[in-house]
Amino acid sequence: MHSVRAALKSPRLLRTEVLAGLVVALALIPEAISFSIIAGVDPQVGLFASFTMAVTVAILGGRPAMISAATGAVALVVAPVMRDHGFDYLIATVILGGLIQILLAVAGVAKLMRFIPRSVMVGFVNSLAILILLAQIPHLVDVPALVYPMVAAGLLVIVLLPRVTTVVPAPLVAIVVLTAITVVAALNVPNVGDEGELPSSLPALFTPDVPWTLETLRIVAPYAVGMALVGLMESLMTAKLVDDITDTHSDKTRESWGQGVANVVTGFFGGMGGCAMIGQTMINVKVSGARTRISTFLAGVFLLVLVVGFGDAVATIPMAALVAVMIMVSVGTFDWHSVAPATLRRMPRSETLVMVVTVAVVVATENLAIGVVAGVVVASVLFARRVAHFTEVIDVAQPDPDTRVYKVVGELFFASSNDLVYQFDYAGDPRNIVIDLSESHIWDASSVAALDAIETKYAAKGKSVTIRGLNEASQERHARLAGHLDAGE
């Protein structure tokens, strides 16, 4: 992984970072404007948010080269606040959301990433590629016929140019060439200027004019919590994705509080908040080859310079060029190996199901966080079901006419212990029952309750139960809970 210092010393690495930042900035502009429209705010609110998020995360974030800016996921969460209560409450929500992210980071929420299975991660990546592609469709419907050959030309440049040279990122060449053709030939096609008015001044400090009361907190807190969770999940998943692409490790806890600080800063500059952007991150890391914080920082700086200083020129960029870039990002992001027939034949059906559920829920809700949670829940249920089947009760010995020894093999937890009660012969067994748990482990209260229920059933028949072979952790849990739970009948 290249460091910032190494990149500054190497003209070749520095050029890669600078050009990557420029490409990302150009691709960010129409997206930030469209997300502003979703949130119900002026385009400059999304554009300024993208600037402050990118610059702050470049300095404080834990994942170098990842792009954070205004996003559709956050826009969807905060839109109702803007609609029902106005701009000041929206900014208060963004600031509170950032503070919650900082608290979650301190509480160690990043450690939860280890519980996200690979199949959910694959589903996350694939659904993201589909969402990026679907977002381009409005720019291809009810448009002049010229748009289609322009998109095709952009795609050809992006695909073929890297075979000739990689000195300049192919997406940047496609954008410049198609913009030049549009301007010189005076082509009448949709451009960035049609998406919304670009700002003409720099962002300024802004303090939301809201009453600092519990009532205000009641209004904004639910949306702030939603924004914090959605933003963190999307950011941490993106960081993990970049880790995999670059074969490096990043500090997820630092990334979590970095996102929180970035949202607080963004709020105080009148921005709509945001999180990591997977599409732009893929442009930066995978397409352009950036690897350091320089590209992230410059993406924010270039964005501000372009929209404020060169707004008239930026407005002439045809949307066809940006659509071509995002289509290639979608194709490059999708994990084609995961849907290859050979992979599907080899992969356990449960893993494929988890991936499909994740993709289906994300595409249906257009919310990556909901899809990831659904995928994790399905994966957990399938795992619990699979592990539960490994637990069995074996009749191992009858040392004398009055004693029978059973051995429980496997893990005892809520899914496996429910059936445990039905695997003993309460009526036919002798007076003394020994249950050997030396090849098992008690994981939760459900298992202790099941053992209590077994003892209760035998006691009703005038028979006694001895439990032996518990390991230290199981012994401690059993001693603490046995007899204090409602064992039932």
UniProtKB/TrEMBL annotation:
It is a multi-pass membrane protein. This is Sulfate permease, SulP family. GO terms for cellular component: membrane. It is found in: Membrane. Residues 401-489 form the STAS domain. Its main location: membrane. It comes from Aeromicrobium choanae. The lineage of its organism: Bacteria, Bacillati, Actinomycetota, Actinomycetes, Propionibacteriales. Gene3D superfamilies: STAS domain. Pfam families: STAS (PF01740), Sulfate_transp (PF00916).
